[in-house]
Amino acid sequence: MKRNQIIYFLIAIFCFSGSYAQGDISVTSLADDNSIGTLRWAINRANEDFKINKIVFDTGLKGLINLNSNLPNVTSNMIIRGGGADNITISGASEYRMFVIESGFTLDISGFTFTDSADNYNNGTIFDVSGSSVIATEIVVTGISNQTAFWSKGDNSTIDITNSIFKNNSATLFRSYWGSTPSITSDNESDYTNRITVTGSTFSNNRDLIFSTERYVKIENCKFSRNHSQIASFRGVNRYQVLNSTFVNNTGNLLFTFSSKIGDTPSWGEDTLGANNTLFDGNLFQGNTGTIINTGGGFKHDSKTTITNNIFVNNGNMWYGNPIVATGNQQNNFIESVSPSENDGTVFLNLNKSLLIEADEELH
């Protein structure tokens, strides 16, 4: 019996050694005891051996990784490919942090659901970057009730998330602070050294402020529906862009606010911002019950906000304040004609543009 166990052990070691030679390593177990084949063991091995730069979950592996302690910090450039968000869930058991990426390194991760992360306001409990980067695709973030899921801190810090889902959370998800900015608002993203970018993603049924951020944030081609609180509080002398996204049936009193030191006496930073420092362009806002944008409440703030080419349909209010540019926006001009049916009480509406209506939504 012992001889067979030794043979199996040697075969396993040989297989994992072959993975090292190819630059990747396999996760074959959902346990969290640092045994061979677990995610914790794989991260430790990748940190220790520069030849290992990719962690791949075995096809067919499905279920929950319930953390028993914080995962090891990422101290090398690392790629982690899960088995798909429908198949692999990582839970922090409401106590443990997941991925802390140390300065100078990048984590490229996809194919997971993240839930129930630790309670830590001052640190990211799913992704924590400080002089480091995360590239995340096809992830699901759900059931987060503790602060804060994602933190981006200081210079050379970036969080880039694409094609992902954020649903049924009740905590602030994104925070950021510090980092260099150019002397005047720039269209060159690399001029900002602390950046959060979210593209092609969906936010639904979240119940707390989603973005509480400073420095650079870009939200593009995203959909926000049925969220119950504020979407973003943008602060500081920074660059914010909300582009080509859809906001439907959100119920927060305010969806977006902007504030900074430029309103203080003495004022600071007013001359460093271009007119489109805060830019809303190409978005659809439909059926939201509150005010869409509070530009800051005074000339020094308002003169930095640009609102262009958006469509507003049946919202509580478009915006407070006087943005320096507000052109190309359309409001409630979808109905071209209205005619009753000759046979019953049906009313026909002819629209000159399409509305976004889903199976579980009502027309407002």
What's the mean pLDDT score?
A: 87
Number of strands: 32
- Shape descriptor: globular
Cα distance spanning the termini: 71 Å
Strand residue percentage: 35-45%
Structural class: mainly beta
Largest sheet: 19 strands, parallel
Helix content: under 10%
Q: Treating each run of at least 4 consecutive H or I residues as one helix, how many helices?
A: 3
The domain tally reads 2
Structure description:
There is one protein chain. The chain is mainly beta and 364 residues long. The chain folds into 2 domains: 1-145, no CATH class; 179-364, no CATH class. 9% of the residues lie in helices and 39% in strands. The protein has helices at 2-21, 39-48, 299-302; strands spanning 24-27, 54-57, 63-66, 78-81, 88-91, 99-101, 106-110, 113-115, 127-130, 133-137, 140-142, 150-153, 157-162, 165-167, 174-177, 194-199, 202-204, 211-220, 223-225, 232-243, 246-248, 254-259, 278-281, 284-286, 291-294, 305-308, 311-313, 317-320, 325-327, 330-331, 335-340, 347-351. The chain has a 19-stranded parallel β-sheet that branches. The longest helix has 20 residues, at 2-21. The termini are far apart. Mean pLDDT is 87; it is low at 5-21.
